[in-house]
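Tokens for chain A. Residues wanted.
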């Protein structure tokens, strides 16, 4: 009886403890904010993926998608992040992430993805892509690639036929064709423009072997020698005579002028075709060679846009990276590449049937495919963004004639050296 009493007492105590079991602490819901500047269709895809993720993590994580103005976007992000009130995620280039990598861990404002990832991304993409993902002064993983795009030559084949010109394959032919269209249209249709002056001139610089950085990255090479002066002079003539335009006449991109039939061709992103609505949309790979005897190399910019997560606290950072992995899985990455008219850098996505069908039937991707094998990127060197700004200023001021080409090159080189020394 004594033994039975002890057993019953123990059983009663067990029931008592079970009934008084303390509640597990509630997990605080994490809100992850994304800022972007995408089109309506692109926003719809992003919001759909975010909604799917939120449904899987209801009560734990909520991803909020917020559209922002394109103009001044990166400046707004930088100021907001520096003041601790910015987004948790943006989608941009490795060079953008580089601006947030400080000399110390405390000064770095972007997350090291390796701290939170559930898989080894070095095995998911080509070595060259992964190299750019970690090409920062601290050697850490600060960006996860989403898609690869690049500039292509976009033109109006109806206008080309109307004015009796052929599709150019060299930059010299671009100048000739553009001038012909300008003159035959009685100065109503500009022949050529570029969405990014810096990327256009970077292409010319690399194709003609001018070089970008010196060996120890204390200066730039493209400001030295006669070739850069020649390229700037040809561009200046084209702008001042009217058959090249420095900036869009309407909107932020040249697609607006293409749709208005006041522009016959431009170099713009392969992802920009959804913005075009005119009759006669056509595209091809970038031209090469400015003039005989200058020498030419195979090179075209590769724009590897990726996910960047900003530092906050460990719980929110982990939640943001969890969404990044979901966003980049095979199904979602294929959908995003389709929406962006872009290539996917992921081996798994490249084998996706829907993705393969997208590439085969896409005008922009077909044009991009013609140059993808020799597409390249520049190092994410400290000061890279400032160098791009200095190069753009050089192009604009010399084209406008506000400074001489010789003076402009000297100003640009000094600005670049200052940026590299910071």
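Reply:
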């Amino acid at each position: 009886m004594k033994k039975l009493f002890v057993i019953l007492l123990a059983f009663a105590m067990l029931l008592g403890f079970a009934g008084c079991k303390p509640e597990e602490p509630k997990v605080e819901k994490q809100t992850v904010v994304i800022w972007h500047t995408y089109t309506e269709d692109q926003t719809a895809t992003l919001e759909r993926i975010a909604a799917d993720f939120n449904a899987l993590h209801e009560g734990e994580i909520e991803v909020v998608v917020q559209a922002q103005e394109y103009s001044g976007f990166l400046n707004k992000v930088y100021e907001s992040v520096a003041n601790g009130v910015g987004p948790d995620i943006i989608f941009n280039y490795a060079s953008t992430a580089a601006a947030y990598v400080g000399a110390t861990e405390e000064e770095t404002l972007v997350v090291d993805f390796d701290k939170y990832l559930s898989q080894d991304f070095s095995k998911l993409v080509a070595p060259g892509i992964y190299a750019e993902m970690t090409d920062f002064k601290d050697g850490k993983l600060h960006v996860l690639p989403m898609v690869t795009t690049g500039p292509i030559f976009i033109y109006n084949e109806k206008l080309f036929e109307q004015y009796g010109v052929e599709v150019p394959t060299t930059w010299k032919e671009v100048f000739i064709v553009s001038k012909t269209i300008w003159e035959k249209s009685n100065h109503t249709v500009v022949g050529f423009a570029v969405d990014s002056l810096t990327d256009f001139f970077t292409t010319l610089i690399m194709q003609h072997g001018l070089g970008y950085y010196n060996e120890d990255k204390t200066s730039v090479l493209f400001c030295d020698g006669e070739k850069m002066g020649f390229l700037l002079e040809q561009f200046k003539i084209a702008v001042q005579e009217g058959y090249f335009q420095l900036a869009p006449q309407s909107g932020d991109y040249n697609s607006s002028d293409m749709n208005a039939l006041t522009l016959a061709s431009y170099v713009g992103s392969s992802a920009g075709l959804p913005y075009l609505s005119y009759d006669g949309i056509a595209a091809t790979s970038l031209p090469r060679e400015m003039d005989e005897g200058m020498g030419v190399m195979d090179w075209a910019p590769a724009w590897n846009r990726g996910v960047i997560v900003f530092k906050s606290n460990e719980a929110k950072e982990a939640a943001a990276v969890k969404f990044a992995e979901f966003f980049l899985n095979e199904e979602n990455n294929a959908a995003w590449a389709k929406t962006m008219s872009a290539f996917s850098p992921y081996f798994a996505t490249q084998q996706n049937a829907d993705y393969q069908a997208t590439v085969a039937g896409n005008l922009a991707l077909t044009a991009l495919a013609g140059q993808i094998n020799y597409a390249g990127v520049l190092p994410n060197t400290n000061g890279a963004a400032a160098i791009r700004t200095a190069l753009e200023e050089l192009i604009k001021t010399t084209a406008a004639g506000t400074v001489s080409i010789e003076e402009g090159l000297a100003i640009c080189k000094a600005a670049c050296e200052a940026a590299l020394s910071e």
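The CA atoms of residues 383 and 418 lie 8 Å apart. The chain has a mean pLDDT of 90.
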